[in-house]
Structures are given as C-alpha cells and as structure tokens.
Write the structure tokens for this entry.
Amino acid sequence: MEKNTPVLFITAATFRLCKLLGKYQRPIAFLLIFAFINLMSGCTYMRGKVYELPDSKKKKTLVTKIRKYKKYVIVHYKNKSWHLEHFAFDQDSQLISGYLLPLSDQHLFYDNSFGQGTYRYKQAIGDPTDEAHFYLTKFDDLDSKDLVTIPFSTIEEIDIFSRDRGTESTALIFSVLGITLAVVVIVFIIAIALKSSCPFVYVYDGESYYFMGEMYGGAIYSSLERDDYMPLPRLKPKGDSYQIKISNELLERQYTDLAELVVVNHPSGTKVLMDKYGEMQSISAPLAPERAFSDQGKDISAALRAKDGSIYLFDDESAETSEQSAIEMQFRKPLEAKSGKLILNTKNSYWLDYVYGKFTEQFGTYYNTYAAKQKKVSREKNQQWAMDQSIPLKVSVKTTEGWKAVDYFQVMGPLASRDVVMNIDLSEVAGDKVELRLECGY
C-alpha cells in the first residue's frame, strides 16, 4: 500500500533585511509613556479619619496635634468654609482663635462628602493631607475680619487626612504588575519587529490555511542563497489542486527564485524527508536514544524520546568552551549497519534574531553600506563565519579514532519546528552502540 507525502521544494532564495521597527515606534512609545505616567501620578492616596468630640480632653489632644504638624485649618459652618489663619489654642478658656480668610486654590480640592476611609487624590490640583477640618454647630463671627474665637463646645467634628502609605504601596505593586504586562506585550511586539526570518509558508488543510514554518533561514545575502525543503504533512487537496501560500510579513525584502511541490509515493508505515542536499530519505521504525546527556551531566533523555513539545534548549555550557553548548546521545546499532539516519524535530530560539538585531543596530545609518559590502563577501567566507559562531547545529559521530564531524543542519527559524534528517556514516563505528554529539552556540 502506498501513501502520498507532499514535500515543498524551494530553491535559490535570499532576502535583504530592512528597517523593521519603524511602524512600531509610535505605539511602543505611547504605551511606555502611558504606563510611566500611570505609575508616577496615579497612585496617591489619603486616609480620612473622623473624630466626634463628646469631651474636651480629646479636643485638646487633637488641637495639639494639629498645631504640632502645622495643618491648614479649614472651618465649616453650614454651607460655608474658611481658612483659619494664625490658628491658636487657649487651654484655660477652651477657645481656638485665628483670622478668617478665603480658601486658597490649593485647598479647594476637599469634598464635603469625604470622611472616614481611604481616597485617591491628585497632588497636581491640591494636597489635602495637610488639612484639618473643623465642623461647627454655631458660629457668630461669620463676617468678621478681625480675630475670631471659637468655643470648643461648638466643635461637633474634626476631620484629619494623612497619606495612606499602605494603599499606595499596594497600588504601586499593581501598577508595576501592569507595567510588567505592558513590557511583556512590548517585548513580544519587538520580538516580531526584530524578527529577521524568512518567507512564511502556509498550506490549505481542507478548512483553512495552516502555518507550517519558514524557509531558508539565515540567507540574508545573495551569496548565501540556497535550496530548502519543507515537509507539508497537513497539506490537503482542494478539488484537483493544492493551495500553498508563501508570504512576506516582516517588512523584509525577500527574493524567491523557484518554488516547486514534490509529491512522493512511498510504502505505508514509512516516512519520507528530504535532506539539505535534496536527497529523499525514507524512514521506518526510528529509535529513540537510549541515553542523552548535556556536557554538564544533565540527563535529557526524557525530552528527546518523543515529539511531544518537551524540548532541550542547549542551555548548558559545553565541556570544551563556554561559548558553545553540546549534548551526547547513544543509540542501539545493529552490528551489520553501515549507515544511519539522524532525525530531529527542531527550530531556533529568538536569541539569534535578537543578537543579530542588536548587532546591526550598532551600525546606525552605516548599515546599508555595510550590507552592500557583505553582499560581495564570498559564500565560503560567510559560511565559515557562521560555523565559527556555532550558528548551525553541528553533528559528530564517535568512531574508533574519536569524534568525527559529520555535517550540520541549516538554520530553521524560530516560529515553527520542523522535521529534518541527516545521513550518518557508521562504517567507522565499532560495537552495537552509536554515539552522536550535537553542538551549537550557547
């Protein structure tokens, strides 16, 4: 029984990176400004405390506190309010005194509906936390411009306000959380904006277009153009045709020279992948590694046994150099086997895109000149530079004479994982075990 497996074949493609942040600068700036203003001006709170005054002892204590902290005294009688300037207190006569003045603009903020409790206020229009409010049951000197006296017996209530530091701290925490969320959104926007990836490939799966991944990652100069091959397991025919979409969504200038669809007939129970050289590789009954460890001794076998979303990030330093990360895997090998096929489900993280974006930022307006010069650099030199930086994923096999380099996998792009395959020569491997080493930048 045969099964059809579509494989997309794109060749001779390259793109030139353009300035990506332009259309995002304005919304990012406004989002940050809004978050900052909210943090700086949106979290000022006061606590109001109401004192009813049945006895003169409590009145005396409160008045002493008001004088000590130099509160701005406001006298309320019926629907009128005044500032009591040069506030004084006579303990023997149980009188308070001062001069009645209109309220200043900075002290018109107070609302008579305030009282016991916590309130938010705006320091820009007034600070009520330095105010003390006296409510009178009787006041005979309403229109006096001279010194007035107010008996304690006519004071029904005193309201005093102070900064509510506890509520402000809580509000600050939530503001920081809000800003953190905003920053996460901004980081996501910047990650997309700085994304220096390649054409996106979508396939029609019978209901809608499904994103499959990116093509020819890292081919940022014409000298680095190359063929790329992507399996399309979700591709379904629509009538008598297949529908595939290749799109440029990241403000890049992309060049695609050729796109072809290859349909492979193969026996049921087998899988077909194309290696980076365009050679068909059939796969049946693949084996998971028996052992897998990072160079720091971390057991990662469980992460590599199945294509289940559990991944290894190459986040341990290599034993040989802190600039690289490596893992070693051991597989069972039939004694007569002379070759094998390494199958990985892999993708890049955003780290390479981020680092390369920061690198190009340093050129400023000189970048276009730099990019034009890089186009003239030979393919071999650019490829060697990438290898020196450990950008591709290198594969080595352990032979009777030690570790031997086999080949490397091309950059996949960070948005979607992809199945890839590599032929491994086992003619120099003795015994019933195969040991492989994968290495890339740390």
